[in-house]
TrEMBL record:
Keywords: Glycosyltransferase, Transferase. This is Pyrimidine/purine nucleoside phosphorylase. Belongs to the nucleoside phosphorylase PpnP family. GO terms for cellular component: cytosol. It catalyses: a purine D-ribonucleoside + phosphate = a purine nucleobase + alpha-D-ribose 1-phosphate; xanthosine + phosphate = alpha-D-ribose 1-phosphate + xanthine; cytidine + phosphate = cytosine + alpha-D-ribose 1-phosphate; uridine + phosphate = alpha-D-ribose 1-phosphate + uracil. InterPro entries: Ppnp, RmlC-like_jellyroll, RmlC_Cupin_sf. Catalyzes the phosphorolysis of diverse nucleosides, yielding D-ribose 1-phosphate and the respective free bases. Can use uridine, adenosine, guanosine, cytidine, thymidine, inosine and xanthosine as substrates. Also catalyzes the reverse reactions. Its EC number is 2.4.2.1, 2.4.2.2. Pfam families: Ppnp. One of its GO terms (molecular function) is thymidine phosphorylase activity.
């Protein structure tokens, strides 16, 4: 974690990009935050629906609230998350989501 992290529920001393990331006709949106150490995260909301995303780098998806199922690469069984949960997705992969209730998420991009 960056030393910009103050507590589990907030970040300090970050740059927030004004332009939103909008996907799937506005059903998934996020804002990018940049840390002084070069790390990047997005904070967003996913409305109910079925989605597929691709990754360029390894990602940690932290679900803060909501209800969803995720199908990770090379898996045949869906992982269910209700409330809080997290999962990793490897670089250069795709994963599927079935969002049942509005999901609040934080995505960390891991470039190590």
């Amino acid at each position: 974690m960056s030393n910009s992290t103050v507590a589990a529920d907030r970040y300090q001393e970050v740059t927030v990009l004004k332009k939103a990331n909008v996907y799937f006709e506005g059903k998934v949106t996020s804002r990018t935050i940049l840390f002084a150490d070069g790390t990047k995260k997005t904070l967003g909301i996913m409305m109910p629906g079925d989605y597929e995303f691709g990754t360029d780098v390894k990602e940690l998806m932290e679900i803060q609230a909501g209800k969803l199922d995720v199908l990770l690469p090379d898996q045949t069984e869906w992982l269910s998350i209700e409330g809080e949960g997290e999962f990793y997705v490897p670089a250069n992969a795709s994963f599927k989501l079935r969002v049942h209730e509005v999901a609040d998420y934080c995505c960390s991009y891991i470039t190590e």
